[in-house]
Amino acid sequence: MDKFLLLLLMLGPLPVVFFQAQALMCTVCSSFKDGRCLKGKGNCTLNSVSACRTMNIFIFSETDGWLQDHTELDCQNFCFPSQLYYEQVKVSTYCCKNQDFCNRYQKFVNKEIY
Length: 114
Ligand SMILES: *[C@@H]1O[C@H](CO)[C@@H](O)[C@H](O)[C@H]1NC(C)=O
Prior knowledge:
- By secondary structure, the protein is mostly beta strands.
- Helices cover 9% and strands 48% of the residues.
- The protein has a domain at 23-96.
- The longest helix is centred in the first third of the chain and has 10 residues, at 2-11.
- The protein binds 2-acetamido-2-deoxy-beta-D-glucopyranose.
């Protein structure tokens, strides 16, 4: 009887351990301004090649220089930090994947990050 119980214990369901990487989420917003999402609010989930992206859009004004117009937040495959100029428009892109909704906290960053 003791041997039988021992056998049952050994054959019993083995604890299955799932090493499940929790997918990170990012904030999505097509127009973020003055601390609020005005348009296209949502979430997106990262996969192995994507990162949370923050794009700050600046418009050049003759009197005041570069002024932040709005921010766009999303998930982007192969996100690359950059600073691009299109005539009177500047787009600063930041990428992160260190924590959930990390792109939210970069929304008002206005500095070079190279
Ligand atoms: C985004 O995710 C957060 C946290 O999981 C949740 O509270 C919120 O309702 C979600 N928003 C949308 C628009 O799905």
